[in-house]
Design goal:
By secondary structure, the protein is of the alpha/beta class. The protein folds into two domains: 6-135, Rossmann fold; 137-313, Dihydrodipicolinate Reductase, domain 2, CATH 3.30.360. 36% of the residues lie in helices and 31% in strands. The chain has ten helices and 14 strands. The protein has helices spanning 15-25, 38-52, 62-69, 83-92, 111-128, 142-148, 172-179, 181-190, 276-288, 299-313, and strands spanning 6-10, 29-34, 57-59, 73-76, 96-100, 132-135, 157-165, 195-206, 209-218, 221-232, 239-243, 246-254, 260-266, 269-274. The strands form two sheets. The chain has an eight-stranded mixed sheet with strand order 8-9-10-7-11-12-13-14. The chain has a six-stranded parallel sheet with strand order 3-2-1-4-5-6, with helices on both faces. α4 packs parallel to α5 (111-128), α5 packs antiparallel against α10 and α8 crosses α10 (299-313). It starts with 5 loop residues before the first strand and ends with a helix.
């Protein structure tokens, strides 16, 4: 039986805690995480111990962690502006990289500079033979959606509402940067060659909310996309998506084994399945182990997602 894959998480006190738990659940060994200060590392270590019995080490330096631990997979869950330097270091160290969305983002850079960074990471991964994936995990739900509501292969309309709570992002543009990659990933999963028609972009970045609309074109087909992402002061939260007005609500509930489950509910009934992040991490693990060819959301798809996200945001 092969040794478990060694995983290190950069930024494990927030969403990274859940990533670490999912990696542990699929049989990988979480050997280390990187935090910002010794005090935060101590707190995060206790949190991970309570979550899944963590026995790894903590670091405040990415370079030191890479040199000492030599992980197979580095999972990047730190702030957006750190994604590029952390991924660059990890790929240079010979690690496979799974990165939170967006793959790169730094408001101090131009759109062209961010695209150049994403392309550099893609080329480096290709040259080194490492896998580079992005966590826009809702794409993992498309097969379940299709089983519930089989529709046209070339839908003409997509709509989504994605709500979060307590993100401390009062500006609609910031909420779009944070949440926009998820609905975009569903559009790209349906239309792999999707490109945005800039002339159709309509944007309303308000307080705590972003409402956007645009057309995508793929192989001569056109699909109208209408997306709302918002930050609410408290639950309940609504997550809702669908093609050609056949929509489902996305919620979740704990399973009997203690792991979270995704629930899709709509006119086609209700389906309960694995959490999409669980699916994405499980699939990325199989890719690294050689059992599948490429990540669910590849570096190429992440770059495509970023281009659409930047154009909608009006970032030049």
């Amino acid at each position: 039986m092969p040794d478990p894959l060694r995983v290190a998480v950069i930024g494990a006190s927030g969403i990274g805690r859940h990533h670490a738990n999912w990696h542990d659940s699929v049989g990988s060994q979480v050997v280390a995480f990187v935090g910002t200060t010794p005090e935060r590392c101590h707190e995060t270590t206790k949190l991970l111990e309570q979550t899944f019995g963590y026995h790894g080490k903590s670091y405040t330096s990415v370079d030191e962690m890479l040199q000492r631990e030599r992980p197979d997979i580095v999972d990047i869950c730190s702030p957006n502006s750190t994604h590029y330097p952390a991924a660059l270091r990890a790929l240079d160290a010979g690690c496979h990289v799974l990165c939170e969305k967006p793959l790169v983002w730094d408001d101090h850079l131009s759109a062209g500079q961010m695209i150049d960074q994403a392309m550099q990471l893609q080329r480096l991964a290709e040259r080194s033979g490492q896998h580079l994936g992005m966590c826009s995990q809702l794409a993992a739900l498309l097969p379940q959606y299709d089983q519930m509501l089989p529709g046209a292969e070339t839908p003409r309309h997509f709509q989504a509402i994605m709500e979060i709570s307590g993100s401390a992002r009062p500006n609609g543009r910031e909420i779009w940067v944070d949440m926009g990659p998820h609905p975009i990933s569903l559009v790209i999963a349906r239309y792999p060659s999707a490109r945005l028609d800039p002339a159709t972009i309509q944007v309303d970045f308000g307080e705590h909310e972003a409402k956007v609309a645009f057309d995508i074109i793929a192989e001569g087909d056109r699909c109208v996309c209408e997306i709302v992402v918002r930050d609410l002061p408290r639950p309940p939260l609504r997550r809702f998506f669908g093609f050609d007005h056949q929509c489902v609500n996305l919620s979740g509930k704990p399973g009997e084994d203690g792991y979270y489950r995704a629930v899709l509910a709509g006119a086609g009934g209700e389906r309960v399945g694995p959490d999409p992040m669980h699916l994405l991490i499980q699939q990325f693990t199989r890719v690294v182990a050689g059992d599948e060819q490429e990540p669910l959301v590849t570096a190429e798809t992440a770059l495509q997602n970023l281009r659409i996200q930047l154009e909608v945001a009006g970032h030049h």
